[in-house]
Write a structure and sequence with these properties.
single chain, 283 residues, alpha/beta, Rossmann fold, Pantoate--beta-alanine Ligase, Chain: A,domain 2, six-stranded parallel beta sheet, four-stranded antiparallel beta sheet, globular
């Protein structure tokens, strides 16, 4: 496995691999890798002949600068994990390699109503930053395949739509969420959870399961929302941003299930000052 910092070095290598008929996979990350990230690399390695994993903490997707400053840096450990997972190249660019003309950039992404719900509502400009950096990575790597995690379901939907809208010739895969034993979705933010608050982190997943069971028992989404709010109100360390039912066909909030195979429950909020998100499929 090679670690490359500059796109000028990466592009010729990928051109050579592609000319040999190899299928290229891309897994974009911001580092602080965990089992969820590694599952993306492994999924790419199954379908692609050559997998690139990027490590870049993208400043344009952070609406909270404190989050950016506190984002964990575990680069050496990340490299060790990627070697074990079967990654072929790590692209770890400095800021200027991706944002070389940032002061002159006029291109902006806008996603209309999509930016007014769930993460779009609570993290202004977040998805514009995600779309910008992923587009840059797509243009540099020109992958045949890319893998994103289900945990960030709205992000997956956004990138899937971006690929369609901009006519990228890229297949996209949604890889199931990897969880801790108590159900907590693996996340880089989990590294910031104090030991004494760790049991409370499982509340997010437990609320999703509770809501799902209520719906399957014939109760309404309104009843499930009230229950989740009650659970969160029991701890001063927890704050709920949203608990919603989503039609994953068009990623709109719904109050009635139209297609059980295209329905998910999504949750987000804070444990102390650490923001956590999660979701589960209805089926």
């Amino acid at each position: 496995m090679k670690v490359i910092n500059l796109k000028s070095e990466l592009i010729p290598i990928l051109k050579k691999e592609r000319s040999a008929g190899k299928k290229i996979g891309l897994v974009p990350t911001m580092g602080a890798l965990h089992g969820g990230h590694l599952s993306l690399v492994k999924a790419s390695s199954i379908e692609a002949d050559f997998t690139v994993c990027s490590i870049f903490v993208n400043p344009t997707q952070f609406n909270n600068q404190e989050d950016l400053l506190k984002y964990p840096n575990t680069f050496d450990e990340d490299i060790r994990k990627l070697k074990m997972a079967g990654c072929d190249i790590v692209y770890a660019p400095p800021h200027e390699d991706l944002y070389e003309n940032e002061s002159k950039r006029i291109t902006e992404f806008s996603f209309g109503e999509f930016e007014q719900i769930l993460e779009g509502k609570y993290r202004p400009a977040h998805f514009a930053g995600v779309a910008l950096v992923v587009s840059k990575l797509f243009n540099i790597v020109t992958p045949d395949l890319t893998c994103f995690g289900q945990k960030d379901l709205q992000q997956y939907y956004l990138i899937r739509q971006l690929i369609k809208d901009l006519s990228y010739n890229i297949e996209i895969r949604c890889v199931p969420t990897v969880r801790e034993e108590d159900g907590l979705a693996m996340s880089s933010r989990n590294l910031r959870i104090p030991h004494e608050l760790r049991p409370l982190a499982a509340t997010f997943y437990q609320c999703l399961i509770t809501g799902k069971e209520m719906l399957k028992n014939g109760e309404s989404i309104s009843s499930a929302k009230r229950k989740v709010k009650e659970i969160f109100s029991e701890s001063a360390e927890l704050k709920l941003d949203y608990f919603e039912m989503i039609d994953t066909g068009n990623f709109k909030i719904i109050d009635q299930i139209k297609n059980e195979n295209e329905t998910s429950l999504c949750i987000a909020g804070y444990l102390n000052n650490i923001r956590l998100i999660d979701n589960v499929n209805y089926n």
